[in-house]
């Protein structure tokens, strides 16, 4: 009987301590984000090819996710993605170029998606037009035929710095969610990379210079990168003006 009386309190203590440790390790609030010199050291240690020289900014996307653009020793404009995980700030992706990508913080919730970029100044990007597009098409099954109209949503962003952040617009997130929840008759199955293949939904953008001409982003493509852990990202295709329909 005495042994039982001793075991039960010890078991309770173990459960309480384990719960505290689990909360501390997985769910505790983030500590202060690292300073620029610490970020440079971490990027260089994790991915030496990036050769970071200057941290341009640290943009909080939410409490646990940060976007950190940087300039390298050889004047490349790169990006890094940071996440508070396992009780520390971890760099989950580093890229030596700054072409547009979407970071899907929660792949099941489009409202947590962010467009992120860092264009080289020589590309002279002054304005960006982002698009959510579904191509029109016809589908048939069991002697039934239905028509899917084109969807084209546009969002314009003025470029103030070489880098930028655009949270997924609410109406875009709602549209993506509606397609992912649609029944099989609508032929709208959402794949893990965010493109609804059989309805043609995709993200795109067009960069413009100060004169209103399409900018050539040759200095912001063709680099290398590093990824660590569970990181969900999608490349955003650069579109041409003929692909956009006038509304």
Features:
alpha+beta; 2 domains; 6-stranded antiparallel beta sheet
Give an overview in words:
By secondary structure, the chain is α+β, with helices and mostly antiparallel strands. The protein has 2 domains: 1-29; 31-243, no CATH class. It contains 3 helices and 16 strands. The protein has helices at 2-27, 36-46, 170-180, and strands at 52-55, 59-62, 65-72, 77-85, 88-95, 101-104, 113-118, 127-134, 137-141, 144-148, 151-158, 163-167, 201-208, 225-227, 233-235, 237-238. Strands 1, 2, 3, 4, 5 and 14 form a 6-stranded antiparallel sheet that branches. Strands 12-7-6-15 form a 4-stranded antiparallel sheet, with no helix packed on it. A hairpin with a 4-residue loop joins strand 3 (65-72) and strand 4. It starts with a helix and ends in a 9-residue tail after the last strand.
């Amino acid at each position: 009987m005495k042994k039982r009386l001793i075991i039960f309190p010890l078991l309770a203590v173990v459960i309480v301590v384990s719960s505290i440790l689990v909360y501390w390790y997985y769910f505790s609030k983030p500590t202060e984000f690292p300073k620029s010199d610490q970020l440079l050291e971490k990027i260089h240690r994790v991915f030496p090819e990036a050769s970071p020289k200057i941290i341009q900014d640290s943009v909080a996307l939410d409490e646990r996710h940060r976007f950190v653009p940087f300039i390298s020793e050889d004047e490349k404009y790169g990006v890094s993605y940071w996440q508070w995980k396992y009780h520390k700030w971890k760099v989950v992706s580093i890229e030596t170029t700054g072409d547009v990508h979407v970071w899907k913080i929660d792949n099941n919730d489009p409202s947590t998606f962010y467009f992120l970029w860092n264009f080289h100044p020589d590309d002279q990007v002054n304005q960006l037009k982002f698009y959510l597009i579904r191509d029109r098409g016809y589908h048939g099954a069991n002697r039934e035929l239905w028509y899917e109209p084109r969807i084209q949503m546009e969002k314009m962003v003025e470029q103030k710095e070489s880098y930028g952040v655009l949270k997924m617009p609410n109406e875009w997130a709602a549209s993506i969610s509606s397609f992912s929840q649609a029944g099989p008759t609508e032929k709208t199955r959402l794949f893990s990379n965010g493109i609804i293949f059989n309805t043609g939904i995709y993200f795109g953008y067009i960069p413009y210079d100060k004169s209103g001409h399409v900018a050539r982003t040759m200095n912001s493509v063709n680099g290398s990168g590093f990824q660590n852990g569970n990181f969900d990202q999608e490349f955003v295709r650069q579109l041409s003006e003929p692909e956009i329909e006038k509304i």
